[in-house]
Design brief:
CATH topology of the largest domain in chain A: Alpha-Beta Plaits
CATH topology of chain B: Formate dehydrogenase/DMSO reductase fold
Radius of gyration of chain B: 23 Å
Strand order of the largest sheet of chain A: 12-11-10-3-13
Number of strands of chain A: 13
Number of helices of chain A: 12
CATH architecture of chain B: Up-down Bundle
Number of strands of chain B: 0
Order of helices and strands of chain B: HHHHHHHHHHHHHHHHH
Shape of chain A: globular
Strand content of chain A: 15-25%
Oligomer: heterodimer
Largest sheet of chain B: none
Number of domains of chain B: 1
Strand content of chain B: under 5%
Structural class of chain A: alpha+beta
Structural class of chain B: mainly alpha
Low-confidence stretches of chain B: none
Helix content of chain B: over 70%
Mean pLDDT of chain B: 94
Low-confidence stretches of chain A: 1-6, 11-28
Order of helices and strands of chain A: HHHEEHEHEEHEEHEHEHHEEEHEH
Distance between the termini of chain B: 12 Å
């Protein structure tokens, strides 16, 4: 315990210079209990700027990279990636409810078991219309009803169009859940069972939405942490049928990993639409209608249930 | 008024020690509060998972109980302010009952809303990060304002009575005497003080009416600002206010009866009071009925898809038993009873009042929960427990505990202070005699 107390200051310092410290730092971890007590000062000092703005000298031997720290600060995460406007296109003609998107998302975001950020609905609009699979995620609305009602600015809309949650600020009033017409938000009624102790103590990042915290709201975040690294959101990458195409509206391109489309062409040619347009929420998620389908609609869960009864 | 008559009024109205009944009553209430507290401690340590609320029903009986408390607290403004400003004098003996119901209910409304929070430890975020655009922040502002105005409306008319109680030192104990002294020793009953106090009360009476309307209108907006069927209604503010006056007036009738029989106050809370309050109750019940017809008939006429599911659930489906129970208890039966002169006698009026209060509690539940079980997209990809809601013992214990807590405040208040304003009663009698 003592060790971790004395190293708190150093910890803060290192967080400022994560990149720099990769050069010539000790291989032994001085911040854990099993670390050797005798980390020998190398004698080589490094000048650092503390959080208070003072310049301090620290021995090089005490520096180490801290990979679990959020890659961007909370303030940056609230602004977003400049010049971008993220969109998703979900092609209903390609979906057969494999739910790979769901399991990848649940796994990567450590979502509480039983809850999902991606939901795949068997939909049938009217008695004589054809059923189809409709995956839903957070719609990242341009007029987000959830953001409107949040009393503490814990859920916010970024310049790049993404709606995120600051779990360190959320008071758990659940007004956003009542306000969201897409039922996309989930609540951490208890500490998520999928979060390891190791993960639970890491600082929360709005961009990765990890680790989820008891008593706060969670939802699909459009994986801005992946986008920053130039990667696709987990659901997009996980889908073998290319149902999800993610991209930037300003560049007018979306991609499902293997194919890339011009967004405006895709929406025009395939008659793209958004959910509950009449509510005026202006979602960032577009749907392509389930025509010329790759797979027939087959509801295995329903069949199993029917057999039981 | 002769001195001996005055003396008698004062002696009859001074607060009395708890008898055996009173002690048992306090004991029961305290037990319920403690059970509620234990349940809350469990909730604090385990999280809201101890409740039956889940992602679809994300607001349960905590929120409906909150709405109930805010509703019943509105009666303070009705009896004290509306009747005072319209120069109605018969209600004077009821003002303090109404005002203490308002204060205790609004106190527990604030407590229960904190109980509903997932992170009560971050309550301060409302002040350091508060967004004025959010209806929750509006609610925090108006409820706090209402609480303080109600407290002052309780306190100012109490000052002359405190002075009377300070004169009757032998009738009280050391601690209470100290309390009275602390609260009211500066009051000397001078003409200047009386004038100032009357002005203050008048100003407060005017102010509290818009604030009272605000607290319940804003509370209704917590629902009406969303898109959901059953909440998405422009009728909601007026619907909530009318329901609030009804349940508050019902609560006052119940309290009147209990205080009257327990403290033998038949001379002060007369049959005439029950008669008049009974008539007010009928009027308010009809008004609430009118808004209910608006609230349900118009969507039911159109039967838009999402509304249809919601309404069928209420009228004939899953919630039909509670729906018809609540509607008949809160409106139909009380109207039927109180329309008749015999029904406005103390006992039947008390029963009708009790029905209003109970029916209204369930009515609030029906406003909150069924809507949440009818989302726009079907309930999918969730465990089975997410598709239904029945409160757990922890939720019941906390809800009942909060109701017991509110009653406890009223009970202790009546033990410490005269529940019928003494000075005002004397003044009114004198004026009456002069006329």
């Amino acid at each position: 315990m003592e060790q971790s107390n004395t190293s708190r200051r150093d910890f803060l310092l290192t967080s400022l210079l994560t990149g720099m410290t990769a050069i010539g730092c000790s291989t032994k971890d001085p911040f854990t209990a099993d670390a050797p007590v005798d980390v020998k000062p190398s004698g080589e000092k490094v000048k650092l700027l503390s959080v208070d703005g003072e310049v301090i000298e620290v021995d090089k031997a005490f520096l180490k990279p801290v990979p679990q720290l959020p890659s961007v600060s909370n303030a940056e995460a609230r602004v977003g990636i400049p010049g971008k406007k993220f969109v998703m296109v979900i092609d209903l003609s390609r979906c057969k409810s494999l739910k790979k998107c769901q399991s990848a998302c649940d796994h990567m975001h450590h979502v509480h078991s039983g809850q999902n950020w991606v939901k795949v609905y068997p939909m049938q609009d009217a008695e004589h219309t054809s059923p189809y699979w409709q995956p839903t995620i957070c719609m990242h609305c341009d007029e987000p009803p959830c953001v409107k009602v949040c009393p503490v600015d814990a859920t916010f809309k970024r310049e790049d169009g993404i709606v995120l949650i600051d779990s360190d600020r959320c008071i758990g009033c659940r007004f956003c859940m009542a306000a969201c017409p897409y039922s996309t938000r989930v609540f951490n009624w208890e500490s998520p069972d999928t979060v390891s102790e190791e993960l639970a103590v890491q600082p929360y990042s709005c961009e990765s939405s990890v680790p989820q915290k008891k008593g706060t709201v969670g939802k699909c975040d459009f994986c801005p942490d992946m986008t920053r690294q130039g990667e696709l959101p987990h659901c997009v990458a996980a889908c073998p049928n290319g149902v999800f195409a993610f991209g930037d509206m300003n560049e007018d391109t979306v991609t499902n990993g293997s194919e890339t489309f011009r967004f405006s062409d895709l929406i025009r040619d395939k008659a793209g639409y958004r959910l509950m347009e009449d509510l005026g929420t202006k979602p960032s998620v577009y749907y392509l209608p389930p025509v010329n389908r790759n797979f027939p609609f087959e509801n295995k869960e329903q069949k199993a249930e029917d057999k039981k009864s | 008024m002769e001195n001996s008559a005055k003396q008698k009024v004062i002696e009859e109205l001074l607060p009395q020690k708890f008898g055996k009944q009173g002690k048992i009553w306090v004991g029961i209430l305290l037990t319920l509060c403690i059970i509620g507290l234990i349940a809350y401690i469990r909730q604090l340590s385990k999280g809201l998972v101890v409740t039956a609320m889940r992602d679809y029903v994300s607001w349960g009986i905590y929120i409906s109980n909150f709405v109930f408390f805010v509703a019943i607290s509105l009666v303070g403004s009705l009896i004290t302010a509306v009747l005072r400003l319209t120069d109605v004098h018969w209600s004077t003996p009821l003002t303090r009952i109404a005002e203490i119901i308002a204060v205790s209910a609004i106190t527990f409304a604030s407590i229960i809303i904190i109980v509903d929070m997932g992170r009560p430890d971050r309550f301060y975020n409302l002040f350091i990060h508060g967004r004025l655009q959010s209806p929750i922040v509006w609610d925090v502002i108006v409820i706090t304002t209402y609480f303080f105005i109600s407290l002052l409306l309780l306190y100012f008319p109490l000052l002359p009575d405190l002075q009377i109680m300070l004169r009757y030192k032998e009738k009280t104990n050391k601690w209470l005497y100290k309390l009275y002294h602390y609260l009211g020793s500066f009051w000397k009953n001078t003409a200047g003080q009386i004038k100032m106090s009357e002005r203050a009360i008048n100003i407060l009476s005017v102010t509290i009416i818009p604030v009272a309307f605000s607290i319940h209108t804003v509370t209704s907006w917590l629902f009406a600002t969303t898109y959901r069927p059953g909440w998405d209604s422009t009728n909601f503010g007026a619907y909530f206010i009318s329901g609030a006056f009804l349940v508050g007036a019902g609560g006052v009738v119940v309290a009147m009866y209990v205080f009257r029989t327990h403290y033998k106050l038949e001379k002060y809370i007369t049959d005439g009071h029950f008669d008049k309050m009974g008539k007010i109750l009928v009027m308010l019940a009809l008004l609430y009925l009118y808004f209910n017809v608006n609230e349900y008939l118009i969507p039911a006429f159109k039967m838009k898809k999402p509304e249809e599911e919601h309404l069928r659930g209420l009228f004939t489906g899953e919630f039909a038993p509670i729906f018809w129970f609540a509607v008949s208890m809160a409106m139909f039966f009380p109207i039927l009873i109180l329309l008749f002169k015999k029904g406005r006698k103390p006992l039947p009026a008390f029963i009708a009042g009790l029905m209003v209060v109970i029916g209204s509690w369930f009515k609030r539940y029906l406003i909150v929960t069924p809507t949440l079980l009818h989302p726009f997209l079907p309930m999918q990809d969730v465990p089975d427990s997410y598709r239904h809601y029945f409160p757990t013992w922890e939720e019941w214990a906390i809800a009942v505990g909060s109701l017991a807590g509110a009653l406890l405040i009223i009970t202790f208040f009546a033990r410490i202070f005269p529940i019928i304003p003494i000075q005002e009663t004397i003044t009114e009698t004198e004026q009456h005699e002069k006329a």
